Amino acid sequence: MLWLDLENCTAITDKSLKAISEGCRQLEYLNISWCENIQDRGVQSILQGCSKLNTLICRGCEGITENVFTDMGAYCKELRALNLLGCFILDDTVADIAAGCRSLEYLCLSMCTQITDRSLICLANGCPLLRDIELAGCSLLSDHGFAVLAKGCNRLERMDLEDCSLITDATLENLSKGCPRLVNLSLSHCELITDAGLRQLCLNHSLRERLVILELDNCPQITDVSLDYMRQVRSMQRIDLYDCQNITKDAIKRFKSLKPDVEVHAYFAPATPPVSAQPVRSGICRCCVIL
User: Who is most buried in 23, 72, 172, 236, counting CB within 10 A?
Assistant: First the structure.
């Protein structure tokens, strides 16, 4: 057996994983997401017994602790995709991953809210092949960490930085310089991003030919000017602008007239109806007509 999906199999325990590690030595893909009874020992059994494992999906495994990858470096050399969304992961955990998983290409640490810039520095030093990283909701990460990551992981093609609320235009400048292969970037709810940062990103020589998807929901400081910059990106296919209060309908219409093939997703709240100036007689509801 090469592929096993046990997502939401809540009765699965470490004993089950031990049996799998002994009986399925050729296993390459394992999904144990939301298996709440899985703990460190079970995951470690898989890593030790399944030497060809290249994909491990552990979303929402609440029993996993920060020590799950301690002393596991020798068993993670083939691992290329790792998803730990919502797990209890600390900087020490990421340091263990970076030290042992040097072939890693995809990593999801979204909603691992305790990690800091130290994690990004470890990844920059240990995982140079990273192409896809998800860090949504990691609100302790800052410009400094992303500056180091951009230098060390220059093969990045997709980054989900939604709700990385500390990052500023400095991160966009560093990504534009260090990550020339970037195709898909989410900056939703990064409220410190401004037009100046998007200028750096969109006018970069390499990214003008590569960037395909840009998600900017709830970025209140960007204005119509940013649409002018985004218009310069020849490869663009989709832009998300939900709840960007300083982007106007007219600017989007102008953009669409010049770039009709680009999907622009935006939402504008309906105008509040004017309050009637006509006085209402006391004791009579508004919907009644007085004859």
Answer: 172
Q: What confidence tens digit (pLDDT) does each residue in 175-210 have?
A: 999 999 999 999 999 999 999 999 999 999 999 999
* pTM attached to this predicted model: 0.91
Burial class (CB in 10 A: 0-12, 13-18, 19+), 170: middle
In this predicted structure, the answer to whether residue 15 has a pLDDT above a threshold of 90 is yes
Closest CA to 171 of 185, 157, 155: 185
Range from 99-113, 138-152, 256-270 carrying the lowest mean pLDDT: 256-270
Distances (CA, A) of 195 to 77, 101, 115, 228, 252: 42, 37, 28, 10, 15
- Contacts of residue 282, Cβ cutoff 8 Å, sequence gap at least 6: none
> Superfamily assignment of 50-265 in CATH?
Ribonuclease Inhibitor (3.80.10.10)
